[in-house]
């Protein structure tokens, strides 16, 4: 019988999102910009560097803490009971040779990652559907856009983001923006077209009408199921971090209630910069659809850009 990932939270992640390959990536980019040599591959220098460093573990990347903590949900104090609740799969534009270093680095850090695709420059997002992925993290914006279009929650990681705090070793902390991330961009479209007053009036009038789902609702649902499954070693803490303020806060809360999903914290910031609030929450990752908020957050915490909704139509 074929193996199955049914019932698991499946995270697909690129090698640059999991590990700090920025120095190696500079070599790769230099190869692309070098005048072609007959018979030579443009990634030859990059492949050689990765092979030379095969036994040198890569440093943790921006999503390392998130992955490590999620995989801890598979650990149990009873060795006779194997609970596989989370699967992490590498989906990488790297070549197979460089993929060896990715797997060795994961092994070095005790990350039980066994599956991966290495496509040597080809976009890997097309493998998300067979995986039934609940989340895709990549440094390539084009791959993220394709994944979102295919209905998979996805974000472009900012490799230069601050790394996650180690203050909460037994808690996965994830923060989400609301509109165009957890929720549809319906309200954001009103704001963009008509301004703040019209947005506030629109949301006040529709306070009892749940918002439609945004691209990250499936991930929030999967995290909710994982939390309910429970483990004595790990728990999940979620936060809604939004530019909404009263009275527009009510519709967001009522929407979550309609979904039968609870978040642990809700921050209605009324346009204040999110970065310093996120610094205090200390998430392992933060998702937002607007690059200005992602840049603000990335100074303090791991952050990713969800390239969806009206705010990203012209970018």
Task: Give a quick precis of the structure.
This protein is of the alpha/beta class.
Can you walk through the features of this model?
The protein is an alpha/beta fold. It has two domains: 149 residues, Rossmann fold (3-Layer(aba) Sandwich); 142 residues, Rossmann fold (3-Layer(aba) Sandwich). It has 13 helices and twelve strands. Strands 5-4-1-6-7-12-11-8-9-10 form a ten-stranded mixed β-sheet, sandwiched between helices. Strand 11, helix 13 and strand 12 form a beta-alpha-beta unit. Helix 2 runs antiparallel to helix 3, helix 8 packs antiparallel against helix 9 and helix 12 crosses helix 13. The longest helix has 13 residues. The chain is globular. The model has no long low-confidence stretch (mean pLDDT 90).
């Amino acid at each position: 019988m074929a193996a199955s990932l049914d019932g698991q939270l499946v995270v697909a992640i690129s090698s640059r999102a999991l590990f700090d390959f920025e120095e190696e990536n500079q070599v790769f980019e230099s190869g692309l910009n070098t005048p072609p040599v007959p018979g030579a591959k443009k990634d030859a220098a990059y492949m050689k560097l990765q092979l030379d460093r095969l036994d040198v573990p890569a440093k943790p990347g921006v999503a390392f803490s998130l992955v490590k903590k999620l995989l801890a949900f598979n650990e149990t104090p009873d060795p006779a009971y194997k609970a596989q609740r989370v699967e992490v799969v590498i989906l990488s534009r790297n070549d197979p040779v460089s993929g060896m270093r990715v797997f060795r680095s994961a092994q070095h850090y005790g990350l039980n990652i066994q599956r991966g695709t290495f496509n040597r420059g080809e976009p890997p997002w097309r493998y998300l559907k067979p995986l039934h992925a609940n989340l895709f993290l990549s440094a390539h914006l084009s791959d993220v856009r394709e994944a979102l279009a295919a209905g998979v929650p996805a974000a472009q990681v900012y490799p230069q983001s601050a790394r996650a705090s180690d203050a909460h070793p037994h808690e996965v902390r994830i923060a989400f923006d609301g509109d165009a991330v957890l929720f549809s961009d319906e309200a954001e479209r009103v704001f963009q077209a008509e301004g703040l007053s019209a947005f506030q009036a629109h949301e006040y009038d529709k306070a009892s009408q749940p918002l439609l789902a945004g691209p990250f609702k499936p991930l929030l649902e999967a995290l909710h199921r994982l939390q309910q499954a429970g483990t004595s070693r790990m728990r999940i803490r979620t936060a809604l971090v939004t530019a909404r303020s009263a009275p527009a806060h009510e519709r967001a809360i009522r929407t979550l209630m309609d979904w039968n999903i609870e978040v642990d914290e809700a921050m209605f910031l009324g346009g204040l910069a999110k970065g310093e609030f996120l610094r205090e929450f200390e998430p392992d990752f933060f998702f937002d659809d607007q690059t200005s908020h992602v840049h603000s957050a990335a100074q303090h915490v791991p952050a990713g850009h969800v390239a969806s909704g009206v705010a990203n139509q012209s970018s």
